[in-house]
Amino acid sequence: MATVGYGDAKPVTAFGKLVATATSICGIIVLAFPISMIVEKFATAQQKAIEDEQLHQAQVSAAANNYLLRRFPTRRRIRRDRANGTTANPLVKTVA
Fold first, then answer.
1. Least packed by Cβ within 10 Å: which of 52, 73, 91, 92?
2. Interatomic CA distance for residues 71 and 86, integer angstroms
3. Where are the domains of the chain?
4. Which residues cross the membrane (predicted)?
5. Half-sphere CA count of 61, side-chain side, radius 13 A
């Protein structure tokens, strides 16, 4: 960042060394800001992808639970049907 050429020429005077130091610090700053912004964008995109995947998994689980709750009878319904002797489920024996 601060060198030019092959390094065969270097600052000798105090002012030259000061300018070289200031140039190298400015070069580091100029490169650090865009790199940090790029890394932040990647981290934000990765976090959003993780949150989207978690939301999708939650939606799939909710849909599966909803299906199961609607498909299978509740304990209260099973007890009521057994007591009445009217069951729609062929796997449950009715008490006669």
1. 91
2. 18
3. 14-84
4. 18-39
5. 6
